Amino acid sequence: MRITLSNLHKMMRDGEKITMLTCYDASFAALLDDAGLDTLLVGDSLGNVLQGHESTLPVSLRDMVYHTQCVARGAKRTFIIGDMPFGTFQVSPQEAFRNAADIMAAGAQMVKIEGGRPMLETISFLTERGIPVCGHLGLTPQSVHQLGGYRVQGRAEDDAQRLLDDARILEQAGAGMIVLEAIPATLASQVTAAAGVPTIGIGAGADCHGQVLVLHDLLDVYPGKKAKFVKNYMKSAGGSIQDAVALYVEEVRSGKFPGKEHSF
Ligand code: KIV
Question: Is 95 a catalytic residue?
């Protein structure tokens, strides 16, 4: 049976860590399903790791629909989240709904939207109409040019306070989960302590309710620069993809990953 958002909320309440990896195709989806992952994110990081772009900005709705369909065919048990690509949700809640509906029809159980307070109305609109939404705060890659690069966010006191406020606002708007990317571990810990929905960290320390990594980073097949929060599980597990994924799941569940060396 497929894992549901309620199952993930129960894991949070029971103190069980939630495991997530990005996934873009049916074969890896089946492998990750078998490895016991709880959730798969069809991330727009596919723009970097599959398409070879320098950012996620060129990824289209059509790309996301296609890859979500592929993942949904391969994964029978995991909860699937589809990213809303740049330009498909910022203009109006109505347009966001139509685009999110395409991703849900492709096989996702939730869509992910980058951004804080300005997304309030859109998140309410979608969740009130039956589309679960995962928020994404901190380093939001679709805003890379506004942020001035891929940098750690929330270090200054006012930025940290804004992020705490944004997390509360997203939850009040109906977000069922929040990804926290590249923020200080102490800030992620504060957000997590205040949150009533699971927080999933990537470069956000060990206290989040769950962890996510980009699959191609974990397997060390992405040729680009590695962020500090990436761990090369291929090396740690001795060269087998299945063993690398199994070790990631084990280390997230036991709290061994991320270590201090992967955190800010
Ligand atoms: O697109 C993606 O892979 C993501 C993760 C980095 C969280 O949004």
Answer: no
